[in-house]
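Thanks for the sequence, V.! I ran Sigma-70 region 2 right away. Repeating your input here for the record:
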Amino acid sequence: MLLFAEVLGGAESVNSNKEIPIDDDMIMEIGKNSKEAFEKFYYATDKVLYAYILSFLKNHEDTMDVLHDTYIKIRSAAHLYKPMNKPMAWVFTIARNLAMTKITKNKRTLYSDKPDIENDLSFSYVTDVEDKMVLITVLKELSNEERSIILLHAISGLKHKEIAEDLKLPLSTVLSKYNRGLKKLKNILEKKGVRYE
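Predicted structure:
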């Protein structure tokens, strides 16, 4: 119920994977074909990347496809990574580019049989009913940046400063879009009859 609490009550987010630092050394180890480094990287970033990619694609199946492609791309390109003390910015760039490619490809093929988000019960990382309702609202009503920032903070537990660095945005922009997005969500949910204390 983290996302629901975040939107309606301001509860602090928790990221159970934060104890594994993602740094340049880890990416360099992946570039040397270290299975251990890649496994640690995967378990430290899977929820963060899922939330980020979902903010663009708004569809579980497409998100899972792009998530898979992102890890393949990271594994195959890690040897080219240039240390810059911002490995997650590099990772987010890869994920965003692959998500945009997927969107373009879906538009070109007139992918009109996409399931309605509300009837899609397969969001694997969101099991709480109230969280799913908030997530559906986030995906339908917010701008891409608002979605990304709120999902990265609420679901993945990233701090606003980390989000700003990873998305290459000023901290003030991240904070204002986050607060504006939360206000928008609260208003929408109140109109839908969601009560909170």
